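subagent[fold] <- orchestrator: predict structure for attached chain, return tokens only, no commentary.
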Amino acid sequence: MKMHQAHGRLSHKLIWITLILSTIFVTSGCHKRCPTAPAEPDAYWNTVTFGETACNFVSNSRSFRGKLFATNRWGTLCFDDMDNYWQQHALGISTGLDYKPLISKDFTVYLRDRNIYITRTEGDASGSIMIWPRDIDPKFEDFYFSHTYYEKELGLMNGNNRFLTWIRGTEDGHYMDYLVFVDLQDAPIIQITNKGYWPASPPQEGANFWNVSFKGMLAMNNNFYIAYDNARTSYHRVIYPDLSYEEIQVNRYHSAITLFEYKGKIWAQLANTELVYSSDFQNWEHFAWMEPYLFDIRAIDDYLFVHINDKAWFFSDSENPGSIYQIPTENMETRTITSISKFLDYLVITTTNGIFYKSYETIMNDKILNRGISLLQ
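subagent[fold] -> orchestrator:
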């Protein structure tokens, strides 16, 4: 395994990304409390919907500090109880699963008109910043995000508020892919204190094209864990807080399709459908075989929650290992689930057409043993 350093402040090459920053005075949203919509008669789930049809597309949610934060076309919505919410920021977020905002404890990152915006997750939106990728470097003049194996959040945020994303540009007339980072600080406006990038590794010798696809991504313990392919070559990379990184080439069938944290370990679903866990991102232990591929896995309490289209399941490594339980989602047909969170004593599911919530305890009692997803030990 080779050690590498980022291009940036700590790089011996002193190659900087030129970030053109603009202070964005975003109007804070209405802070008037708004009652949620009543549940449909005899429906299993309680619902929250919004006036405009386009605003019912709720792209993500996270729970921090006793509040639930969700994103839709309006911007960030804040709940201190599911009975009431208020609009935290009026942001005009681009909608779509391929533009899924990143919600972290301190900052929310979203896309609007091909520009990356960073604002506070909670509090005043004034002093937010915008990064124009086309002005980062001439190679990003026709910038777009690098290809990802599946739709995911716009990037990763570690515990030190280092934001990482993936950008494709051109170098000498050829496509090149980069992992780009900025370090964020909020005092009194959001500032970038450091910045840099790492190039993706080239394909193995003999490949005649560059075709990067980022797959599993995880921020954990202030490290970033990245799995990606370039043509026929697969890599696993760990980026450390000091901006150095280690990378190994892995067998393509053993590359991580999905990465997530569970009980202090790095978990992965590999390309061969094996579900494994590790402490170091190199030595893996087998848990089960799972089909199909699961791309959005969240740990809630002792369980792992997953979703595909309008169906949701959960399982555990300790309670009846090998069993997977389906969550009743009868009145979610034709909607696509975008996130699952636990907030207060509710399980909250955001979808492309509204928010659904119900007592967490009730759902645990109503779980249905289901083999729609194969979990074979």
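orchestrator: received. Logging for downstream: Residues 360-365 form the longest helix (6 residues). The helical segments are 360-365.
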